Structures are given as C-alpha cells and as structure tokens.
Amino acid sequence: MAPSPAPKASDLLTIGALAKRTGLSVSAIRFYETRGLVAPIRNAGGQRRFPRSDIRRLSFVAIAQQLGFTIEEIARLLAALPQGRTPTLKDWTGISRRFRSVLDARIAALTLMRDRLDGCIGCGCLSLKKCRLYNPQDRARRLGAGPRFLLGDSWRDA
C-alpha cells in the first residue's frame, strides 16, 4: 500500500488545539504519543502538529480506556487504522469487529457475575448456608482454583 500523502499545514492541529477538541490534557496526548497511539509531525521549529484524524484516534482511546482496555490492547486495535488520514468506513468496520468480540466477551462475563453475585460468588468457601446448595462438600474445588461458578463452570460440572 502506498504511504498516505503528507497532510497540508492547514489540516494540522497544535497539541493545544487537539487537547481542546478531544477533551484530553496535553500531558495525556504526550503520553499517548510515547506509546505510539498518535504520531505527530514536527514542524521546522520542532513543534508537534497533529493531523485532524487524530481527533478520532484519541477519542477512541479515551472511550476504550473508560471501558477498561489497556493501552497495549488499544494500541493493537489502532494498529489496523491508517496513520495520517481519516479512517474510512471500511477501516472502522474492521476495527469495530475486533473491538466488538472483546466487548461481547466482557459483557457476558459481567452479566454472569451480576446474575450470580447475589446468590453465591462461586468460590467454594461454604461460608454461607446457601452455598451448600450450590457446592455441597466443596465439589467445585475439583474444577480448579478461584470463583469457579463465576468463571463459567456450572454446579453440574462439579
């Protein structure tokens, strides 16, 4: 694939303008730069200039972080997007599919936890009388360590 043409100077933003447009602090944008999530262009005076497409990239970063994604996970997702140009619908569709599968797995885990948290956290501790109904004689220990029923094991498996 041919490299993207260099953006026109009028299409570039200062770090302050980018911070204002995204709601992020300048220091946060610098941090994301060090992690490779954005790659500014340096002008003749050495000042950072960001393509307008970085507004979308950084907005995606902020949303993904609020959803609990790590910087490393976000970087892997963003690696599929083009640098220096606004992503197309096709670009976003590809990243959306990958993002959606991770979100679906997290939603399923959270739903399972929500639905089971009131009754028993599935730890096999037998500290509540009700736990004996779910895990008599601590049978869940055969399935492994940790909160087995919250991790997806069924009491039928125990």
Summarize the structure.
The protein is elongated, with a radius of gyration of 23 Å. It contains six helices and three strands. The chain has helices at 15-22, 26-34, 53-66, 71-78, 89-117, 131-134, and strands at residues 12-13, 41-42, 48-51.
How would you explain this protein's 3D organization?
- It is a single chain.
- With 158 residues, this protein is mainly alpha-helical.
- The protein has two domains: 9-117, Orthogonal Bundle (Multidrug-efflux Transporter Regulator, Chain: A, Domain 2), CATH 1.10.1660; 119-158, no CATH class.
- Helices cover 46% and strands 5% of the residues.
- It contains six helices and three strands.
- The protein has helices spanning 15-22, 26-34, 53-66, 71-78, 89-117, 131-134; strands at 12-13, 41-42, 48-51.
- Strands 1-3-2 form a three-stranded antiparallel sheet.
